[in-house]
């Protein structure tokens, strides 16, 4: 089982959107997927509740209150982490992650918050001798703006890979309302968005060749 965690201490940066789209992508590829919602707001759980019964099933867990266990061992565990995690809670989450994706928004507040959080995360990984692979994604971006250039300059300066930019688009909202991911919408509608996801999926495939000890059950 591979675990992919969406993590950033800053709320509203798109962790749930990326988590639900990764879950929908992998289940469409025929994999068994579990979506663990660690955020008490329950946005991932609500997305899953809206998912049409005729779509491939994703096992959901309200992980902020229930143990993360599934009737059958899934191929992928997608973890939607809450905002505001530090210290012991951060250590606990990182312990159960194979791959960590950090979405960052193009705003001065988000950039400053990401700088502090990424420093803490890397120190936590080092202290734990964690083998988790970490990358950042620019989210809800408008590429021809000054703040986007500031964001890309910041992300490119980090010690971890800056792997992709996801544009701001209504397609994510349209998909989320239906309990779907953009990979499940008509191709002509989301073709540009699918192109933007390719570096993320390629990075995850590349990391899957890295030898990482199997994760124990959480809870």
Explain what this protein looks like in three dimensions:
By secondary structure, the protein is of the alpha/beta class. The protein has one domain (2-205): P-loop containing nucleotide triphosphate hydrolases (Rossmann fold), CATH 3.40.50.300. 41% of the residues lie in helices and 18% in strands. It has seven helices and seven strands, in the order E-H-E-H-E-E-H-E-H-E-H-E-H-H. It has helices spanning 15-28, 43-49, 87-95, 108-128, 146-156, 171-177, 187-207, and strands spanning 2-6, 33-37, 59-62, 76-80, 99-104, 133-141, 162-167. A seven-stranded parallel sheet has the order 3-2-4-1-5-6-7, sandwiched between helices. Helix 2 links the parallel strand 2 (33-37) and strand 3 (59-62). Helix 1 (15-28) packs parallel to helix 2 and helix 3 (87-95) packs across helix 4 (108-128). The longest helix has 21 residues, at 108-128. It is globular and about 45 Å long. Residues 211-219 have low confidence and may be disordered.
């Amino acid at each position: 089982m591979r675990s992919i965690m969406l993590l950033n201490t800053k709320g509203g940066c798109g962790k749930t959107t990326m988590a639900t789209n990764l879950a929908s992508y992998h289940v469409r590829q025929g994999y068994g997927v579990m979506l663990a919602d660690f955020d008490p707001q329950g946005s991932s759980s609500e997305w899953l509740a809206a998912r049409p019964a005729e779509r491939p099933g994703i096992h959901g867990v309200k992980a902020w209150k229930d143990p993360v266990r599934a009737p059958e061992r899934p191929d992928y565990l997608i973890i939607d982490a809450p905002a505001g995690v530090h210290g012991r809670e951060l250590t606990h989450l990182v312990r159960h992650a194979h791959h960590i994706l950090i979405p960052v928004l193009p705003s001065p507040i988000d950039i400053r918050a990401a700088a502090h959080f990424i420093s803490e995360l890397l120190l936590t990984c080092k202290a734990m001798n964690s083998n988790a692979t970490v990358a950042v994604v620019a989210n809800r971006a408008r590429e021809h703006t000054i703040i986007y250039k500031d964001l890309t300059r910041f992300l490119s300066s980090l010690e971890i890979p800056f792997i992709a930019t996801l544009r701001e688009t209504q397609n994510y909202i349209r998909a989320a309302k239906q309990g779907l991911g953009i990979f499940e919408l008509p191709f002509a509608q989301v073709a540009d968005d699918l192109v933007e996801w390719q570096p993320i999926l390629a990075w995850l495939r590349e990391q899957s060749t890295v030898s990482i000890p199997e994760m124990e059950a959480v809870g």
